[in-house]
Write a structure and sequence with these properties.
Elements lengths: L1 E6 L5 E2 L3 E2 L5 H10 L4 E4 L6 H13 L4 E10 L2 E6 L11 H10 L3 E4 L21 E6 L6 H11 L4 E4 L11 E4 L4 H7 L3 E4 L4 H15 L5 H7 L3
Parallel strand pairs: 1-4, 4-5, 7-8, 8-9
Antiparallel strand pairs: 1-10, 2-3, 5-6, 6-7, 10-11
Length: 230
């Protein structure tokens, strides 16, 4: 199975410009299918709702496609993803408390882009070893971020994963894992293969421009329709 473990939909939230991504759960799933993926984890900021909407869409169309529910959470120490959970976990807890809550909901905790350099956002850094697995390739992170994550995971023998961190259909499927069997158990056993390529610079510039336009309230007709999408 080929699965992208990290992507976002219009349910993702951002304090500055509202929605942090540009496509609906349905559009992200359709893009993943078109690109030949066997599954997708939708991991919106602060809510599992996008992943639940995507799961229900797949059920309605009757396709054989794995949707892993999830959420990206801002802990006091940096960001972590909860995979295979169907309830929200609130932000601003410690990393340890957040991982405990993810486990209590039956999920696993992934330390995502642990060494990325984000404005206004912390990353977990070396504390990534407290999670169940480490994202060692994030298609949106260039520079030394991914190599440092891989070095840490290898040093402490942590399970390794990858994801596109797509905020638009263009980037879905650029990174992820390949495994046989249940991906959650295979991740914990360290029996997955990593694949990945970086998201294109053109895509990064386009998305940055769209987010800047949102910040100043300059939305296109398409963007306005997405704001009202349910």
């Amino acid at each position: 199975m080929k699965i992208d473990l990290h992507c976002h939909t219009i349910y993702s939230k951002n304090k500055l410009w509202g929605r942090d991504a540009f496509n609906t759960p349905k559009e992200m799933v359709k893009a993943a299918m078109k690109k030949g993926l066997d599954g997708l984890a939708i991991t919106d900021h602060q809510t599992v709702k996008g992943s639940l909407v995507a799961r229900d869409y797949i059920k309605r169309i009757g396709k054989r496609f794995l949707l892993i529910t999830g959420i990206e959470i801002c802990t006091k120490d940096g960001e972590v993803i909860g995979l295979d959970i169907k309830e929200d976990v609130r932000d601003d807890l410690s990393l340890e408390e957040t991982i405990e809550k993810i486990h209590a909901l039956g999920g696993i905790a992934i330390a995502v882009h642990p060494f990325a350099k984000h404005l206004f956002r912390k990353c977990v850094g070396d504390k990534a070893i407290k999670a169940d697995a480490v994202e060692v390739f994030n298609a949106s992170c260039r520079g030394d971020s991914n190599p440092k994550a891989l070095e840490l995971a290898n040093k402490f023998k942590k399970p390794k994963v990858a994801g596109s961190d797509a905020h638009h259909v263009t980037d879905v499927g650029n990174a992820g894992i390949i495994c046989d069997g249940d991906p959650i158990s295979m991740i914990l056993k360290g029996k997955v293969e990593i694949f990945g390529k970086y998201n294109g610079i053109k895509s990064l510039v386009l998305l940055s421009g769209k987010k800047l336009a949102r910040f100043f309230g300059c939305c296109t007709k398409e963007e306005r329709s997405l704001k009202d999408w349910k």
